[in-house]
Amino acid sequence: MDRASSGDPRAQCAMGYYYYKGDGVNRDLDRAFQWFDMAAGLGDPEGECNAAYMLVHAEGTNANLDEAVRMYTHSAESGWVQSMFNLAHMYSDGLGVEQDWGKAILWYTKAYEGGSVPAAYRLGVIYEEGRGTEQDLPKALELYEKCAGKDYGPALVRLGIMAYEGRGMPKNPDRAAKLFLRASKDNDDKALLWLGKLSLSGEGMVKSQNNARKWLKKASMRGNAEAKELLEKI
Predict the structure, then answer these.
(1) DSSP state of 25
(2) Same structural domain for residues 13 and 66?
(3) Long-range contacts from 171-178, C-beta under 8 angstroms, 24+ separation
């Protein structure tokens, strides 16, 4: 507390986390924001990232997207990878700025180069769907494969769908099923849905309505509407 009060931004960020998470203190988002904002005021990139996040989500303070973009930008330009990712998201979704896929790709790329797996995944989606750039399935596959190497569930699902449909690669239901099974370990509802569908069709898996019900029930319990509809039909 003494170091934070005396102006140490590292200690101020630590205090912010304590109050944000309720770690050893009562959870208090107002005080969390105050500590992060103090660190941000000293130009600390981590403090700026956390304060900006709370400004976007109106946690412990009123929403202020303009100020959040300003903080994310300074933090990202200072090399903070999470701010690069969050700033890219602001540009891709037009939050506090005009939607700009070029800047979104720029910042997702910088975050990916800084080691962010979610950024690699977002870039994969952009290249797969051709958002703000030409569709590039080989590039999307390369990025998804890198994410899959880290067992990143959403990328495993995207790869599985592409393997099943034969997009950007030969059709391979067996590989698709293996990818969905890996993603299902984290209870990804889309992976569970696809395992149910493959159990129904017998592609890449043993054909079994009982197994299909098991997978679809799990997906439905996690809010997947398509799984719920399929359950009602079998």
Answers:
(1) S
(2) yes
(3) 173/198, 173/203, 173/204, 174/204, 175/204, 176/203, 176/204, 177/203, 177/204, 177/205, 178/204
Q: CA-based angle 157:163:169, to the nearest 5?
A: 135
The predicted structure's pLDDT at residue 2: 67
What predicted TM-score, i.e. pTM, was given to this entire model?
0.91
Q: Are residues 71 and 132 in the same domain?
A: no
State the total domains in the chain.
Answer: 2
CB 165, CB 185: distance < 8 Å: no
Task: Domain of residue 53: give its range.
Answer: 1-78
- Mean of pLDDT over the chain: 96
Mean pLDDT computed over 136-155: 97
- Section 8-21 average pLDDT: 94
Residue at 207 is within a domain:
no
pLDDT in tens, 28-47: 999 999 999 999 999 999 99
Instruction: Give the long-range contacts of residues 88-97, CB within 8 A, separation 24 or more.
Output: 88/119, 88/122, 89/122, 90/56, 90/65, 92/122, 92/126, 92/131, 95/56, 95/65, 95/69, 96/56, 96/65, 96/66, 96/68, 96/69, 97/69
Cα–Cα distance, 146 to 137 (Å, whole number) = 14
The verdict on 107 and 59 lying in the same domain is: no
